[in-house]
């Protein structure tokens, strides 16, 4: 089975269009104000308007209020929610939308605990742990901590053209998630890096 790709932290319409054209299965929009890749719901609506079908539009939230998530859903055609903070399973499930839960990996136990706690999640996204930072660190973690679980795994954290093939060969994830690894600068994607990343995934 081929490895799916999500390109996260999209802030410009042209980057979304190029990601889709290059074969990305999903684009990610960050609704977390402190992030350098944050977008407003109004910006996200413009970025996603009339994108081609069969591409998932993922909204990333970090300890957002339920009201903020609902308001975003009213304005942006999200197909999947991604929770990157300290949200409970009950919080994630209240929107009647498929969701993925991010796990900041410190030990193998973090993964098995999340697998049990978030039993209704569509997938778990594994990211690097850095104290006080909810994600987007640009750092890899020790992939040998990853154990087999019942749901699909999405591998994130410091992936680039240089290491994504090795990551796929070692972990065999359902999907990989990249943001900083395909950027010119924070929030601005590079067409060349997106193309190279997609080639490495296809050839892994």
From TrEMBL:
Any GO MF annotation of the entry: phosphoribosylanthranilate isomerase activity
Q: Which UniProt keywords apply?
A: Amino-acid biosynthesis, Aromatic amino acid biosynthesis, Isomerase, Tryptophan biosynthesis
**Coiled-coil residue spans:** none
Q: Name one Pfam family in it.
A: PRAI
Q: Which GO biological process annotations does it have?
A: L-tryptophan biosynthetic process
Pathway it works in: Amino-acid biosynthesis; L-tryptophan biosynthesis; L-tryptophan from chorismate: step 3/5
Reactions catalysed, as given in the entry = N-(5-phospho-beta-D-ribosyl)anthranilate = 1-(2-carboxyphenylamino)-1-deoxy-D-ribulose 5-phosphate
The family database entries (InterPro entries) matched by this protein are listed as:
Aldolase_TIM (IPR013785), PRAI_dom (IPR001240), RibuloseP-bd_barrel (IPR011060), TrpF_fam (IPR044643)
Q: Which Gene3D superfamilies match?
A: Aldolase class I (3.20.20.70)
Q: What is its EC number?
A: 5.3.1.24
At the top of the EC hierarchy, this enzyme's class is: isomerase
Domain of life, source organism:
Bacteria
> Locate the N-(5'phosphoribosyl) anthranilate isomerase (PRAI) domain: which residues?
5-198
Q: What NCBIfam families does this protein map onto?
A: PRK01222.1-4, PRK01222.1-6
Report the family membership: Belongs to the TrpF family.
Q: List the protein's name.
A: N-(5'-phosphoribosyl)anthranilate isomerase
């Amino acid at each position: 089975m081929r490895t799916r790709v999500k390109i996260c932290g999209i802030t410009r319409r042209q980057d979304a269009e190029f990601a889709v054209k290059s074969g990305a299965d999903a684009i990610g929009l960050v609704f977390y104000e402190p992030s350098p890749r944050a977008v407003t719901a109004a910006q996200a609506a413009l970025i996603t308007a009339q994108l081609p079908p069969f591409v998932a539009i993922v909204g990333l939230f970090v300890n957002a209020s339920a009201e903020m998530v609902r308001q975003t859903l009213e304005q942006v055609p999200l197909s999947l929610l991604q929770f990157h903070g300290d949200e409970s399973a009950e919080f994630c499930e209240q929107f009647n939308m498929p969701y993925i839960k991010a796990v900041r990996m410190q030990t193998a136990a973090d993964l098995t605990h999340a697998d049990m706690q978030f039993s209704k999640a569509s997938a778990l996204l594994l990211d690097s742990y850095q104290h006080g930072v909810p994600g987007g660190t640009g750092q890899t973690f020790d992939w040998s901590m990853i154990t087999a679980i019942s749901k699909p795994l999405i591998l994130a954290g410091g992936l680039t053209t240089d290491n994504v093939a090795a990551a796929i060969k070692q972990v065999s994830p359902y999907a990989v998630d990249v943001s900083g690894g395909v950027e010119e600068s924070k929030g601005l994607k590079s067409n060349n890096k997106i193309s190279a990343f997609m080639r490495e995934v296809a050839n892994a």
